[in-house]
Specification:
heterodimer; A: mainly beta; four-stranded antiparallel β-sheet; 11 strands; 0% helix; B: five-stranded antiparallel β-sheet
Chain lengths: 113, 116
Protein backbone atom coordinates (compact mmCIF):
# COMPACT_ATOMS: atom_id res chain seq x y z
CA UNK A 1 0.00 0.00 0.00
CA UNK A 2 1.58 3.27 -1.18
CA UNK A 3 -0.52 5.48 1.09
CA UNK A 4 -2.10 7.25 -1.90
CA UNK A 5 -5.85 6.73 -2.21
CA UNK A 6 -8.02 7.20 -5.28
CA UNK A 7 -11.77 7.09 -5.70
CA UNK A 8 -13.72 5.70 -7.35
CA UNK A 9 -11.98 2.48 -8.32
CA UNK A 10 -14.14 2.02 -11.40
CA UNK A 11 -16.27 4.46 -13.37
CA UNK A 12 -18.51 3.70 -16.31
CA UNK A 13 -20.13 6.57 -18.14
CA UNK A 14 -21.36 7.67 -21.55
CA UNK A 15 -19.85 9.88 -24.21
CA UNK A 16 -20.39 13.57 -23.64
CA UNK A 17 -20.59 13.22 -19.87
CA UNK A 18 -18.39 14.77 -17.18
CA UNK A 19 -16.70 12.91 -14.32
CA UNK A 20 -14.51 13.79 -11.35
CA UNK A 21 -11.71 11.60 -10.06
CA UNK A 22 -10.39 12.12 -6.57
CA UNK A 23 -6.96 11.58 -5.06
CA UNK A 24 -5.60 11.87 -1.53
CA UNK A 25 -1.79 12.00 -1.38
CA UNK A 26 0.41 10.33 1.22
CA UNK A 27 0.54 12.14 4.50
CA UNK A 28 3.12 14.93 4.24
CA UNK A 29 3.39 14.91 0.45
CA UNK A 30 2.79 18.29 -1.17
CA UNK A 31 3.09 17.31 -4.84
CA UNK A 32 0.34 15.52 -6.70
CA UNK A 33 0.72 14.20 -10.24
CA UNK A 34 -1.96 12.86 -12.58
CA UNK A 35 -1.23 10.25 -15.25
CA UNK A 36 -3.27 8.52 -17.92
CA UNK A 37 -2.46 4.94 -18.92
CA UNK A 38 -3.96 3.38 -22.02
CA UNK A 39 -2.94 0.30 -23.95
CA UNK A 40 -1.69 2.21 -26.98
CA UNK A 41 -0.17 5.28 -25.27
CA UNK A 42 1.42 3.84 -22.17
CA UNK A 43 1.75 5.98 -19.04
CA UNK A 44 1.38 9.67 -19.92
CA UNK A 45 1.92 12.58 -17.55
CA UNK A 46 -1.01 14.98 -17.43
CA UNK A 47 -0.41 17.62 -14.78
CA UNK A 48 1.33 18.38 -11.47
CA UNK A 49 0.19 20.43 -8.50
CA UNK A 50 2.36 21.48 -5.61
CA UNK A 51 0.82 22.85 -2.44
CA UNK A 52 -2.27 24.02 -4.28
CA UNK A 53 -0.61 25.52 -7.33
CA UNK A 54 -0.30 24.12 -10.83
CA UNK A 55 3.42 23.57 -11.48
CA UNK A 56 3.78 21.47 -14.64
CA UNK A 57 1.65 20.41 -17.56
CA UNK A 58 2.04 17.48 -19.87
CA UNK A 59 -0.24 16.14 -22.56
CA UNK A 60 -3.46 17.20 -20.89
CA UNK A 61 -6.44 17.90 -23.11
CA UNK A 62 -8.34 21.17 -22.79
CA UNK A 63 -11.43 19.12 -21.82
CA UNK A 64 -9.54 17.98 -18.72
CA UNK A 65 -8.78 20.11 -15.70
CA UNK A 66 -7.46 19.54 -12.20
CA UNK A 67 -7.12 21.30 -8.90
CA UNK A 68 -5.52 20.74 -5.52
CA UNK A 69 -7.38 21.82 -2.43
CA UNK A 70 -6.05 23.30 0.85
CA UNK A 71 -6.15 19.86 2.49
CA UNK A 72 -3.90 18.73 -0.43
CA UNK A 73 -6.34 16.30 -1.97
CA UNK A 74 -6.71 16.68 -5.71
CA UNK A 75 -9.45 16.23 -8.25
CA UNK A 76 -9.19 15.57 -11.98
CA UNK A 77 -12.22 16.69 -13.97
CA UNK A 78 -12.86 15.12 -17.35
CA UNK A 79 -15.59 16.63 -19.51
CA UNK A 80 -17.20 16.01 -22.91
CA UNK A 81 -15.95 12.47 -22.62
CA UNK A 82 -15.04 10.51 -25.73
CA UNK A 83 -14.54 6.79 -26.26
CA UNK A 84 -10.79 7.37 -26.46
CA UNK A 85 -10.72 8.73 -22.91
CA UNK A 86 -11.26 5.22 -21.58
CA UNK A 87 -8.12 4.44 -19.62
CA UNK A 88 -6.61 3.98 -16.20
CA UNK A 89 -6.02 7.27 -14.43
CA UNK A 90 -3.35 7.31 -11.76
CA UNK A 91 -2.53 9.85 -9.15
CA UNK A 92 0.94 9.94 -7.63
CA UNK A 93 2.40 12.02 -4.84
CA UNK A 94 5.82 13.05 -3.65
CA UNK A 95 7.26 15.24 -0.95
CA UNK A 96 9.06 17.76 -3.11
CA UNK A 97 8.27 20.15 -5.91
CA UNK A 98 11.06 18.76 -8.06
CA UNK A 99 10.68 15.28 -9.43
CA UNK A 100 11.64 12.63 -6.94
CA UNK A 101 10.32 9.23 -6.04
CA UNK A 102 6.63 9.26 -6.79
CA UNK A 103 4.20 6.98 -5.01
CA UNK A 104 1.27 5.90 -7.10
CA UNK A 105 -2.30 5.24 -6.08
CA UNK A 106 -4.28 2.19 -7.20
CA UNK A 107 -5.87 4.07 -10.08
CA UNK A 108 -9.36 4.74 -11.38
CA UNK A 109 -10.47 2.70 -14.37
CA UNK A 110 -12.66 4.87 -16.59
CA UNK A 111 -14.82 3.27 -19.24
CA UNK A 112 -16.65 5.53 -21.67
CA UNK A 113 -19.45 3.81 -23.59
CA UNK B 1 11.46 15.34 -28.17
CA UNK B 2 12.37 13.12 -25.24
CA UNK B 3 12.37 9.46 -26.06
CA UNK B 4 12.43 6.51 -23.72
CA UNK B 5 12.51 3.07 -25.33
CA UNK B 6 12.37 -0.19 -23.45
CA UNK B 7 13.31 -3.58 -24.80
CA UNK B 8 12.29 -6.26 -25.10
CA UNK B 9 8.54 -5.64 -24.98
CA UNK B 10 8.01 -9.01 -23.36
CA UNK B 11 10.26 -11.56 -21.69
CA UNK B 12 9.46 -15.13 -20.69
CA UNK B 13 11.89 -16.66 -18.22
CA UNK B 14 12.17 -19.93 -16.38
CA UNK B 15 12.53 -19.62 -12.64
CA UNK B 16 16.22 -19.08 -11.91
CA UNK B 17 17.04 -17.89 -15.44
CA UNK B 18 18.74 -14.50 -15.06
CA UNK B 19 18.21 -11.80 -17.67
CA UNK B 20 18.43 -8.05 -18.31
CA UNK B 21 15.94 -5.41 -19.39
CA UNK B 22 17.05 -2.37 -21.34
CA UNK B 23 15.92 1.25 -21.17
CA UNK B 24 17.49 3.61 -23.69
CA UNK B 25 16.84 7.33 -23.57
CA UNK B 26 17.51 10.45 -25.58
CA UNK B 27 17.11 13.47 -23.36
CA UNK B 28 19.26 16.49 -22.76
CA UNK B 29 20.18 17.17 -19.19
CA UNK B 30 19.12 13.97 -17.47
CA UNK B 31 18.24 14.66 -13.87
CA UNK B 32 17.28 11.15 -12.91
CA UNK B 33 16.21 7.77 -14.23
CA UNK B 34 13.55 5.85 -12.36
CA UNK B 35 12.54 2.19 -12.40
CA UNK B 36 9.05 1.08 -11.42
CA UNK B 37 7.33 -2.27 -11.20
CA UNK B 38 3.65 -2.53 -12.16
CA UNK B 39 1.36 -5.47 -11.50
CA UNK B 40 -1.77 -5.84 -13.66
CA UNK B 41 -4.49 -3.37 -12.73
CA UNK B 42 -2.36 -1.69 -10.06
CA UNK B 43 -0.34 1.48 -9.77
CA UNK B 44 3.40 1.48 -10.47
CA UNK B 45 5.59 0.71 -7.46
CA UNK B 46 8.85 2.63 -7.09
CA UNK B 47 12.04 0.56 -7.27
CA UNK B 48 15.12 2.72 -7.93
CA UNK B 49 16.40 6.15 -8.86
CA UNK B 50 19.72 6.56 -10.66
CA UNK B 51 21.29 9.97 -11.13
CA UNK B 52 24.65 9.60 -12.85
CA UNK B 53 26.46 7.29 -15.25
CA UNK B 54 28.17 4.45 -13.45
CA UNK B 55 25.68 4.39 -10.60
CA UNK B 56 24.26 1.04 -9.52
CA UNK B 57 21.50 0.12 -7.08
CA UNK B 58 20.30 -3.24 -5.83
CA UNK B 59 17.18 -4.58 -4.18
CA UNK B 60 16.78 -8.29 -3.60
CA UNK B 61 17.08 -9.96 -7.02
CA UNK B 62 17.05 -6.67 -8.94
CA UNK B 63 20.02 -4.53 -9.88
CA UNK B 64 19.80 -1.31 -11.87
CA UNK B 65 22.71 0.31 -13.70
CA UNK B 66 23.04 3.53 -15.65
CA UNK B 67 25.21 4.71 -18.55
CA UNK B 68 25.02 7.95 -20.50
CA UNK B 69 22.54 6.50 -22.96
CA UNK B 70 20.80 3.61 -21.28
CA UNK B 71 19.92 1.79 -18.12
CA UNK B 72 19.71 -1.90 -17.44
CA UNK B 73 17.59 -3.76 -14.93
CA UNK B 74 19.19 -7.09 -14.18
CA UNK B 75 17.01 -9.80 -12.67
CA UNK B 76 19.11 -12.48 -11.00
CA UNK B 77 17.63 -15.95 -10.42
CA UNK B 78 14.06 -14.68 -10.83
CA UNK B 79 11.08 -16.19 -9.05
CA UNK B 80 7.46 -16.32 -10.26
CA UNK B 81 6.63 -13.39 -7.96
CA UNK B 82 8.98 -11.22 -10.05
CA UNK B 83 6.45 -11.44 -12.89
CA UNK B 84 5.29 -7.90 -13.64
CA UNK B 85 5.72 -5.05 -16.08
CA UNK B 86 8.86 -3.05 -15.43
CA UNK B 87 8.75 0.61 -16.40
CA UNK B 88 11.58 3.06 -16.67
CA UNK B 89 11.11 6.83 -16.67
CA UNK B 90 13.40 9.79 -17.13
CA UNK B 91 13.34 13.21 -15.58
CA UNK B 92 14.78 15.90 -17.79
CA UNK B 93 16.14 19.21 -16.68
CA UNK B 94 13.52 21.82 -17.52
CA UNK B 95 13.25 25.55 -17.72
CA UNK B 96 10.68 27.99 -16.42
CA UNK B 97 8.23 27.85 -13.58
CA UNK B 98 5.92 25.41 -15.31
CA UNK B 99 8.78 23.54 -16.91
CA UNK B 100 7.85 20.52 -18.93
CA UNK B 101 10.91 19.02 -17.34
CA UNK B 102 9.07 18.82 -14.05
CA UNK B 103 7.68 15.50 -15.11
CA UNK B 104 8.60 11.91 -15.76
CA UNK B 105 8.59 10.51 -19.29
CA UNK B 106 7.86 6.79 -19.20
CA UNK B 107 8.91 4.05 -21.57
CA UNK B 108 6.46 1.47 -22.86
CA UNK B 109 7.55 -1.13 -20.32
CA UNK B 110 8.81 -4.71 -20.44
CA UNK B 111 6.34 -7.45 -19.46
CA UNK B 112 8.20 -10.15 -17.58
CA UNK B 113 6.72 -13.59 -17.00
CA UNK B 114 8.66 -16.02 -14.82
CA UNK B 115 7.46 -19.60 -15.05
CA UNK B 116 8.11 -22.08 -12.23
Amino acid sequence: DSGVTQTPKHLITATGQRVTLRCSPRSGDLSVYWYQQSLDQGLQFLIQYYNGEERAKGNILERFSAQQFPDLHSELNLSSLELGDSALYFCASSVELAVSEQFFGPGTRLTVL
Amino acid sequence: EDQVTQSPEALRLQEGESSSLNCSYTVSGLRGLFWYRQDPGKGPEFLFTLYSAGEEKEKERLKATLTKKESFLHITAPKPEDSATYLCAVHQRGMGIKAAGNKLTFGGGTRVLVKP
